[in-house]
Amino acid sequence: MTIRPAGLPKTIAILFGLGSCSLQRPATVALALVAVLYLCGWFRFRRVSTGVIPLWRAAAFLCGIFLLWIGLGSSLAELDEELLSVHMVQHLLLMTLAPPLILLGAPAMPFRHAFSQSFIAGVVDPFHRSLAARRLGGVITAPLFCWLMATAVLIGWHFPEALELGLKSHSWHEVEHSSFLAAGLLFWLPVIPPWPSIAPRARWSLVLYLFLATLPCDALSAFLTFCGRVVYTSYLNMPRRFSISPLQDQEFAGALMWICVTFAYLVPAVFLTASLLSTPRAESGACIHPRPWHG
User: Would you list the domain boundaries of the chain?
Assistant: First the structure.
């Protein structure tokens, strides 16, 4: 089925997925199912715990799922084999933009209430209480592990051999996307817990954590932008529908990565810093004025 948009430039139509219908893709169906399960669980949980997960959290989760759909289920995904910049947009959506929104949705409780209580009590709770699960959870949520995994996935898949393997093999392409999403969720876990009852670790170490995460991204983006040659030779032989050379496309991909990652990590770092600076001031004020002054 083809939709022919009238009055839109061809480039814009292709980039925003107006050139073909992608609603039958497995990614679209899977993401729609995840969104429905979350909403069902959210409504059920709201009946017993009003205000714990407010509407803005549900909206954040759905925005994160929508960003995943843009990267995986829309027609934009068809261009990643033609343009490295589109490939980079996919990576940024999967690893940098969608995961924090999904975690802001506090998905643990809505998904818990989306399934039957017998399933939760008979399968999920015993596994969650097991010693092996607790040990595994302690390892994979440690900031050092999360940082190392995110950095390894980012750098590893941008080696020419790895990226071109993903371009040539559909199966490896799916593995690549899955690893970017998993690494993105892991990376943001120390900053944004997936359940509202646990406060984020508002420590200076998290500010350092976010700052250090920009370093491998900056190095990779600088290399792609300024190396002066096409790193991924497969893009030299791809059919091109846009008036942009492979080298210009690579330079744009590097610049896009640098700008997006810088702002994505800078914003939470600023909020964390402001929170940490205001806490001692509030405590100091409490010590000076233990009781309210009535004049």
Answer: 10-114+128-286
Rounded to an integer, what distance in angstroms lies between the CA atom of residue 221 and that of residue 202?
A: 29
Residue 279 pLDDT grade (very low, low, confident, very high; cuts 50, 70, 90): low
First-last CA distance in the chain:
75
Contact yes or no for 261/221 (Cβ under 8 A): yes
User: Could you say which DSSP state residue 243 is in?
Assistant: S
- Cβ of 116: how many Cβ atoms within 10 Å? 9
Cα angle, residue 74 at apex, residues 69 and 80 outer, rounded to 5°: 105
**Helix residue ranges per DSSP H, the chain:** 10-15, 26-48, 55-72, 84-92, 98-104, 108-114, 117-119, 125-129, 131-140, 143-156, 160-168, 170-188, 204-226, 246-288
**Maximum CA extent, the chain:** 79
pLDDT tens digit sequence for 178-217: 999 999 999 999 888 877 655 555 577 888 999 999 999 9
d(CA 258, CA 217): 7
Tokens read off for 188: 């943001």
pTM greater than 0.85: no
- 87 vs 89: CA distance, rounded Å: 5
Residue pair 159/113 in contact (Cβ under 8 Å)? The answer is no
Which residues are within 8 A (CB) of 188 and not within 5 positions of it... i.e. 6 or more apart?
99, 100, 103
Task: Note whether 236 and 230 are within 8 A (CB).
Answer: yes
Nearest alpha-carbon partner for 88 in 146, 152, 157, 151:
157
DSSP at 16: T
* E strand or H helix at 234: none
Report the alpha-carbon distance of residue 225 to residue 250 in Å, rounded.
7
